[in-house]
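Hi everyone,

Forwarding the result from last night's run.
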Amino acid sequence: MVANKQFRIGIDARLAGQAHAGIGRYSENLIRELLPLADQAKNLETTFVIFFFDRRQAKQVLGNSLNHPRIELVFTGIKHYGLREQLLLPMIYRRAHLNLLYVPHWNVPLAYSGKLIITIHDLLWHEQKGLQATTLKAWQYPIKYLAYRLISSRAIKRAQAIFVPSRTIYKTIVHYYPSSKNKVLISKEGIAPAYQKALHAPKLKQKIHKQLIYTGSLYPHKNLKLIIKSLKKLPKYKLLIASSRNLFQDQIKALISNYKVKKQVIFLGYVKDEKLIELYQKSLALVQPSFSEGFGLTGVEAMASQTAVLASDIPIFRETYGKAAFFFDPHSPEDFLRAVKNLELSERKQVLRRGSELAASYSFAWMARDIWQEFQKHLSEEV
């Protein structure tokens, strides 16, 4: 590689930050970990052109790195998934004179034709179909769904490299797009600084309350119905729901009312990491009843916080958690109740030890190194 070659790497960060759940956390930590790697690189002068929605988002994501010399900020004012994303973003990208664009999702504008690397966290909507999986009106859904399939398919086919967080998602992508097999790369996600701190902090004795906690969105495939239905037979338990999104909240509240467990469920809204760690430590377990996931990051974070995990018995959770979680059939309230009872009776210290060991094997720094190496590989082709 020729010394002092100047490269401009674009990063679509419009979904970065904790307001955007898993992808937001992934993007935020990736950007922070990429900066020191670029600083250490020899013979590769890099500027990261980071595309945010607005300055407020940039401040929240970058913190003290807002004025980092390797960063050039672009505020687009363009939300994800909309028509403006398709029409205006390609022009914004062209004006930035990028050597490579990285997008942490499938929503790459159809008209973008430059060098591209993406991360696909899952292909959920390839498999979760129908009006029950959306809040769109009946006439809007088929239009949006076709647009999703077209945009995601083109992004996967055009990308020079595709990162995925697990072997399960690797298999899913290769199933739908066999020709992409040789460019799909597995790179596990990591845990944010607050959870790294909790993982290595002295273990304090906490009083465990009769409460379960759920963290995440409220989409139907998350299968919260199973937990709500089961609460009737766990009358001494509370269910805490930590979610930064209100989508499908009305449906969840209707379920709570139908099953007459209103006094047992507490909606927390968005919860900062430090407070969430405290709640994890006081709860019997994090519950993850989902039918489908791309990784299972909240479970790893709960384990880092010294909390047990009750997870649905699906391939992705088996891959991610191994023997560090209690599993149950996501279609069976009875099996979930069995798992709760088993956890109550188990040797908790052994469960928490396995969880801590597993959480220590996940690192955003390692993930960022994988992605940075792929950036270098494709940039070197230009020299």
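Residues 21-40 form the longest helix (20 residues).

Cheers,
N.
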